Amino acid sequence: xxxxxxxxxxxxxxxxxxxxxxxxxxxxxxxxxxxxxxxxxxxxxxxxxxxxxxxxxxxxxxxxxxxxxxxxxxxxxxxxxxxxxxxxxxxxxxxxxxxxxxxxxxxxxxxxxxxxxxxxxxxxxxxxxxxxxxxxxxxxxxxxxxxxxxxxxxxxxxxxxxxxxxxxxxxxxxxxxxxxxxxxxxxxxxxxxxxxxxxxxxxxxxxxxxxxxxxxxxxxxxxxxxxxxxxxxxxxxxxxxxxxxxxxxxxxxxxxxxxx
Length: 260
Fold this sequence. Notes:
This protein is of the alpha+beta class. It is built from 6 helices and 19 strands. The chain folds into 2 domains: 207 residues, no CATH class; 45 residues, no CATH class. Strand 2 and strand 3 form a beta hairpin. The two termini are 30 Å apart.
């Protein structure tokens, strides 16, 4: 996997700290793309540019979400939703940039005075926008060509916000493995070479903590996730843990988290 400005041109926004930039593949201003094709939705692109500049720090932590991490997030969605419902509003602030396969998300959500404030920028790998939501500015841009036709733009947007919130919850409350890729570096992770050709630091999110290898005959007792009470600095919180799958009349290699 290679992360570069040519492969993911929307990452240039985080380097230049400007939302508008020249897309190298289209060789035209991104603002022109918005105004010409979607002028009914975007009336003033400078609002987006100003908002992005003023809130750039919300998106500076760039996460590469591995397939194993994503699979385990999907496995425990119910527990993550349960966890979210127990949090105070002050603990419901999540933000960052997330690379999931060929899609880039720049995201922040928080609750202020009972009002949910969300900013979300979603791009194809080539930099073409799929979704822009700035709730504070009442701006909503939705590329109909990028989503399934059998659900509304509101439903699609809420699904994206829920997905990113679950990723942030999993990252914060489960013990996950992270690998740091500094600017212009490369690493072998899970037998795959990950190359960072940008000037930005990337964080690779993995979830091998929850992977158990079973090798024998008999039958498995399925593993499952649980919210485990845990005291940190004298205050009770919850940690998402995995109760390991075990194998009757055989053996299993336990997931790493259970050996801590």
